Amino acid sequence: GHKGPHEGEHLRGKEPDKLQNTYRKFITLLLEQKKLRRLFYLGVTVLLLLSFLQPVWQFIRPQGITGEVSVLGVPLSFLPKDNKNTFLIHLHLPENTPLEVTDRATRELGELLRKQSIVSNYETYVGIPSVIDFNGLLSGSSKQVGPQFADIRVSLTNKFERSESSIDLVQSLRPEVEKIAAQYPGGVFQIVEDPPGPPVRATILAEVYGPNLETLSELAQSVKSEFVNTYDMVEVQTSIPSDMVEYRFRFHRAKLALAGLDPATVSRVLDQLMKGEVLGYVHPDGERSPVPIFLHVPREHRIDPDMLERAFVTNSNGKNIPLSELLYVEKGIKSKPINHKNSERVHYVGGELSYSAPVYAVLDLDDRLDEMEVTKSSHLKTANLGFIPVRSNSLEGYKLLWEGELRLTLDAFRDMGLSLGIALLVIYFLLVGYYRSFVLPLIAMTAVPLALIAVFPAHWIFGVSFSAASMVGVIALAGVVVRNSLLIIDFIQDYQKQGHDLDDAVREAGAIRLRPILLTTLAIALGTAIMVPDAVFGGLALALIFGAISSALLVVVIVPLLYRRMMQDQVNDHLLGK
Questions:
Q1: Beta strand 340-341 with 188-193: parallel, antiparallel or unpaired?
Q2: DSSP states along 169-186
Q3: Rounded CA gap, 423 and 409, in Å?
Q4: Distances (CA, A) of 14 to 6, 9, 126, 258
Q5: Longest pairwise C-alpha distance within the chain
Q6: Stretch (H or E) spanning 309
Q7: Contact of 370 with 382, CB cutoff 8 Å
Q8: pTM of this structure
Q9: By three-state DSSP, how is residue 272 classified?
Q10: Cβ proximity of 525 and 29 under 8 Å
């Protein structure tokens, strides 16, 4: 094992560069000084712990769970909003709102949109839904037909030709839209942005289940009140329609008989007054389809049910009898639709957030709503905040299940976390088979946590939420960074086979592989940098770039030191065994 005087120079190469010399000096200090080596281990461990504390620190705020994100916190979200070329303003006024009132509200919003410099055009749809997009399919926009509904589809100038993003425009418009909405009590004015991921009924969505429908409606209203009092919550709505007055006409059977009239004749006259009647069709020249001749009373002359004395029906004797003598009116409340999901009666309470992530609002609401008193003998139970979805069951009493974007986030992180675990297990067992050792693969896989040291700080520096795309980047890192460890370990073992002692082999393996590892990492960073400005895939790029950089810088030091420690322990165990 003794080396000649020039053998070390041959191992290092004829002209060692400054980078390799700097590395050799640094790792030699760590190899020779035990205190310095322990201090280095401690520093890396502290950095790793601080990095993992960043996503936890976001939940520690002066205002509680909701409020501004902590200074060093990294917020979690499913996918961040993207800069789009269009968005939708949806109006849902109370069910008894006339079409003219809905139209007036859309015109006021149109005047607001005209003042925005980046708005190129907009289209209004009053009483009918706009062209159904992917988001509208899930929210059921096709069913929103009636005088209380309206849509405004807003088109912006191309995002590559403007400096202001659609996200900023929507945030600036919301206070102005809320001022207009305040003039229409009971109405909900929603600014619907195209979702970057799968569409949901609402960003924050609570499904309220229970056995008694009347109590369930009251409970949903209470939940709505808590939504309104939540930080950053806007556009809160429920699936409970407002009360609509309904008039029911009943026949005076005795008076009909005395007047010589039958109910069918009176009903036809009543329909003509209320609905109108098609008398026939005309075929004008040049028209492909016949044009109906429709007889109806103009809106300004129509009578209400309390003025039936102004309408008459003629009997067989030619006598005009007012309808008020033949009918009486019952005033009541129109029956409301009952929503079902999984064969259970449900009410939906939904809300949007102006800019914050949904996890904080949901945790705050869950804390306030869980165990809330419903009746003297029952309380509300909240659920569905775990990785395993919960199904409704009204036999268990009144229950609130959380859905919306947070449910998508939990499902995505659960699946991707499972994928990461499986990927790491597969890598470990492959390395066990390759090295025929259970300890050496663990040393090689230290590159993965070392990569995570810079992932969360990078998101904080760039002001990007840790999203599902970021998680994809972390999974990709697992396979990328382990390769650097394998190269160093293989070089160390190769140098040992050539007869060099352990310390020299450890030192030289890192020095020789340092430049190729850094160049490979630089190639990953430059190739991925193009995705950093993207709103959706920016998190993926940051995870790959900074994770690869931190792993590359630390692997060339940590892995050789751990390999040396493992080999020394094996030697000591062998000597003790002897």
A1: unpaired
A2: HHHHHHHHHHHHHTTSTT
A3: 21
A4: 11, 7, 81, 124
A5: 135
A6: none
A7: yes
A8: 0.74
A9: helix
A10: no
Tokens 């300890």 correspond to what residue?
439
Beta bridge partners of 340: 345
Residue 115 identity: K
DSSP-derived secondary structure for 275-301: T-EEEEEE--TT-SSPEEEEE---GGG
In the DSSP assignment, the letter for residue 4 is: P
Compute the distance between CA of residue 377 and CA of residue 150 in angstroms, rounded to an integer: 42
Tokens coding 455: 């992932």
- Contact predicate 105/187, CB 8 Å: yes
Q: DSSP string of 372-428?
A: -EEETTEE-EEE--SSS-----GGG-SEEEEEEHHHHHHHHHHHHHHHHHHHHHHHH
Nearest to 470 by CA among 481, 455, 460, 485: 455
* Residues whose CB falls within 8 Å of the CB of residue 527, separated by 6 or more in sequence, listed in order: none
φ, ψ of residue 115 in degrees (nearest 5):
-80, -10
The secondary structure of residue 531, as a DSSP letter, is G
> Quick one: which of 341, 271, 338, 345 has its CA closest to 302?
271
Tokens (6 digits) for 40: 């280095």
Rounded (5°) CA angle 54-55-61 = 85
Which SS3 state, helix, strand or coil, does residue 6 take?
coil
Q: What sign does the dihedral 568-570-572-574 (CA atoms) show?
A: negative
Tokens of 362: 């949901």
- Measure the CA–CA gap between 163 and 160, rounded to whole angstroms: 8
The one-letter code for the residue type at 88 is L
Q: Estimate the crossing angle of helix 455-462 against helix 34-57, to 10 degrees.
A: 50
Q: What is the pLDDT along the chain (578 residues), one digit of tens a residue?
A: 444 434 444 444 445 578 888 888 898 888 888 899 899 999 999 998 888 887 777 677 666 667 676 777 787 777 777 788 889 999 999 888 888 999 999 999 999 999 998 999 999 999 988 888 777 766 667 778 888 899 999 999 988 888 888 888 988 898 899 999 989 988 889 888 877 767 788 889 999 998 888 899 999 999 999 999 888 888 888 888 877 788 888 888 888 888 888 888 888 888 888 888 888 899 888 888 888 998 887 766 666 676 777 788 888 888 888 888 888 888 888 888 888 888 889 999 998 888 777 888 898 899 999 989 888 888 899 999 888 888 888 788 899 999 988 888 888 888 888 888 898 899 899 989 888 888 888 998 888 889 889 998 898 888 888 888 888 888 888 878 888 888 889 888 888 888 888 888 888 888 888 888 999 899 989 988 888 888 778 889 999 999 999 999 999 999 999 988 888 877 665 555 54
**Which residue(s) pair with 282 in the sheet?**
291
Length of the chain: 578
How many other C-beta atoms are found inside a 10 Å radius of the C-beta of residue 298?
6
CB 260 within 8 A of CB 313: no
Radius of gyration of the chain (CA): 36
